Amino acid sequence: MSRKIDNAMGLYLEGIRDGRPREAVTKYTGDRYTQHSTGVRDGRDGFIEFFEPFLERNPVRDIRVVRALEDGRHVFVHVYQSLNDGASEWVTTDFFDTDTTDRIIEHWDVIAPYTASTPSGHTSIDGPTEITDLDRTEANKAVVRGLITDVLMEGSDQSAIDRYISADSYVQHNADVEDGLAPFKSLVLAPDRSLVYDEIMLLVGQGDFVATLCRTRWEGAPQAQVDLFRLEDGLIVEHWDNAEPVPPKDEWVNSGKF
User: Fold this and answer.
1) Pick from 46, 52, 102, 170: CA 20 to 30 A from residue 144's CA?
2) Which domain holds residue 188?
């Protein structure tokens, strides 16, 4: 595991799971710490002032990093959180930027409730975790970029979806969508589809996994959307996602979700 990933995981596990936010944010962040998480101010002080009360409210914390990707300066982590013996369960999807010493200087996240059983019997986080096909990283990133720009954005050609997603095997971890290309295609091809992608803000890939943070709209309302894809032989075969409304600007305590 790289030092970048170690630092991102350390901030999570030491700072939040183990309840040492002051020590962790000092140890793992750089000269600046720009924050995009809703409700958290920029800087080390913002991290501390948010998480010290959080830790008091949630004395029992089961936090697990399920997947971690590194791509250049950026790290992505896919995290499960159970608080107070399962009183609440969350999936957090986080992106980090790092400096030349691999310390964290910027953070984006999207948080959504954990789903224990999807329509096809999966969970929000199960499935393969081992990264393979490292030689295909750039090609896989291009496939995911193509799906979003060519199919999921407003005014794009939705019929091109077959070029990007496997018709033979497509495992879906969305809480409301069944496995297979057909159910997903019916949503994408619907003339009144609820979800429209506007812009790719971050795209991080390593081997057969690619994660994106996108500016989207859900029924017209602004939303931050994270998608994690797994690919085989140049096609997407598995998908996990998280979505979170973008709050009104007068509620921001930092520069916003993006």
Assistant:
1) 102
2) 134-245
Nearest to 103 by CA among 164, 200, 28, 40: 28
Mean pLDDT by 10 residues, the chain (258 residues): 95 97 98 97 98 98 98 98 98 98 98 97 98 98 97 86 96 97 91 94 98 98 98 98 97 97
Instruction: State the pTM of this model.
Output: 0.97
Query: Residue 126 falls within a domain, yes or no?
Result: no
Kind of pairing between the strands at 88-98 and 195-206: unpaired
Q: Which CATH number covers residue 161?
A: 3.10.450.50
Task: For residues 258 and 242, give the distance between their C-alpha atoms in angstroms, rounded to a whole number.
Answer: 15
Residue 147: exposure state from Cβ atoms within 10 A (0-12, 13-18, ≥19): buried
**Pair 38, 144 in one domain:** no
User: Are residues 241 and 149 located together in one domain of the fold?
Assistant: yes
- pLDDT at residue 188 in the model: 87
Q: How far is 86 from 236, CA to CA, in rounded Å?
A: 32
Boundary residue ending a domain (54, 84, 119) = 119
Q: What is the pLDDT of residue 39?
A: 94
Burial class (CB in 10 A: 0-12, 13-18, 19+), 241: buried
184: its two tokens: 């997903």
Rounded (10°) CA dihedral 115, 235, 216, 106? 80
